[in-house]
Design goal:
The protein is mainly α. It has eight helices and two strands, in the order ααααααβαβα. Helices cover 77% and strands 2% of the residues. The longest helix has 38 residues.
Length: 230
């Protein structure tokens, strides 16, 4: 197989399964956090990769039925503030960048949910989108937790012997645990806004699994039964 053929196959896969790229990028980001979190150069690398993730998120939204001008209205300040927060360490800047990224990720999740609910035929890309949407919700609420922690210090409690604020990775872990209904882990919400955010994510997680995921599973079963009787 020639290099040109491989390139065409990759482009074809990207057009047919854009959600797969986002899902893989999110999982790679988790691996980078596992390796680089706490290291001296970690924040710069993770911040740069976070900007790349935002670009992929915008690409995914642009391919969905959601309004394009709203996408760029959210994406432009989110990407700009994210770049600035990588270069400049400032709590106010981090608060605004985290807030904008939370909104963009949650908007992207709503966009993919609209895409998955748009027809009655399950495609491979919609199965990738189901996983990608879960990660978008997890990242969106994690950034919301980070913004809440900056706005109200002490919003989340972890190690009783430490007075340091929770890292983004710790808040992301809380978000995954909470969204999947597997518990809060070793971090708990303390202030009222933090508790409300946690309750909203719990509701979003249950609703997503009950409505979106169960619908995809049901349509997949119906499709296979139809093939078996044909």
């Amino acid at each position: 197989m020639t290099t040109e053929t491989l390139s065409l196959n990759r482009r074809s896969f990207a057009r047919r399964h854009p959600s797969a790229f986002l899902l893989v990028a999110q999982l790679v980001s988790l691996l980078l956090y596992a390796v680089l979190d706490g290291s001296s150069g970690g924040p710069a690398v993770l911040g740069t990769f976070g900007v790349l993730l935002l670009a992929i998120v915008v690409w995914i939204i642009d391919r969905s039925p959601m309004v394009r001008w709203i996408t760029w209205l959210l994406a432009a300040p989110a990407i700009g503030l994210s770049l600035l927060s990588v270069m400049i360490v400032n709590p106010t800047l981090l608060l605004w960048s985290s807030s904008m990224e939370a909104v963009l990720y949650l908007y992207a999740a709503a966009s993919l949910i609209t895409y998955m609910m748009g027809d009655y035929r399950v495609t491979t890309d919609e199965l990738f989108a189901a996983g990608a949407t879960f990660t978008l919700l997890a990242w969106g609420f994690a950034y919301a937790y980070l913004a809440c922690q900056i706005w109200i210090p002490g919003s989340f409690g972890g190690d009783p012997s430490s007075s340091q604020p929770q890292t983004f990775l710790e808040l992301l872990s809380l978000s995954f645990n909470n969204l999947s209904a597997t518990g809060l882990g070793d971090i708990v919400p303390i202030t009222p806004p933090a508790r409300v955010l946690v309750m909203l994510e719990q509701f979003a997680g249950v609703a997503y699994i009950a409505v979106v995921v169960s619908r995809l599973i049901g349509m997949t079963i119906v499709r296979h039964r139809g093939k078996g009787t044909s």
